[in-house]
Amino acid sequence: MSSATIELLTSPEFLRALIFGAIAAAMVGAVAHRRPPDRMGLVGIGLTVSFIAVSIATQASTPQLGGVVLVGLIAVGVVGTIQMPLAMRMAAAIPGAWLIAWSIDGLELTARLLILVAIAAGGALVADTDHQYRTTSVGPLLIIISVVGIFFAVPDTESALLLLGVSLPFLLTAWPKPIASLGSPGAMMMTALLMWVAATGSAGRLAVVVGATATLGILVAEPVVRRVVPGPVRTMGGDAVMVAAAQLVVVFVASRLAASARSTLMAVSLASLTLSLAAASAYGLRYAPASAKHDGVLPPNSLDR
Known about the structure:
Strand order of the largest sheet: 1-2
Number of helices: 14
Number of strands: 2
Low-confidence stretches: 288-305
Largest sheet: 2 strands, antiparallel
Strand content: under 5%
């Protein structure tokens, strides 16, 4: 870890964000303590609200969300509250995603379109994964790892530093004992927030936006694998350490290689490799041998909504 990174992680802004995150995580934990995780999808909303609060508190030194972005976040969150097919949810999230993508200064059209797709389609996929494994809190665990990746991917770290600070305390909602999930509204809002942070910190570099989008990793790959590959399955969240390790590898490739690529073509190639690795990881973590009938193995699609 470089001295510049250490300086950022000991800065007053980061410590303030940790405090805001700890307070929000404690509130979520207090509400969720005696209830099953599948009924407590509060982590995503808690993360979003705490980031907004700490951003207001440090408004002189960080990019401002602005009213248009807040409306966009609320719009995609509302979409998450409505139960609908995955494709329809993606389409319904486009207006909110458009507001966010077109509110960011200094981006070329390709980057804006990528942000829009990542928020609308990626957000719906993240919400699907979170819902699928809501009892094991896989969603919070994986998205916090994605936050770490965004921090190391972007050249301008002001907002990413705050998001990292508010996110880390929420690890305790997922591990060692899972107590809450992101929730579908919160999952979509957090995906949108991640993409906004990545875009505002990208310094206008398309490769950074490409790499940052790929940090979603297993969160966006798992629903695709689940729908494409039939077979006996096990609960992917059964081993939090293995799931986290797989996401860490995926995020490392996306944030340290794809995001720092010298050309857009190289960034796209590395991001494609990253998502392929995420899909392979999701398959390996989820699918058991066809002959297995016990030890937590579930019938095909038994976890689906």
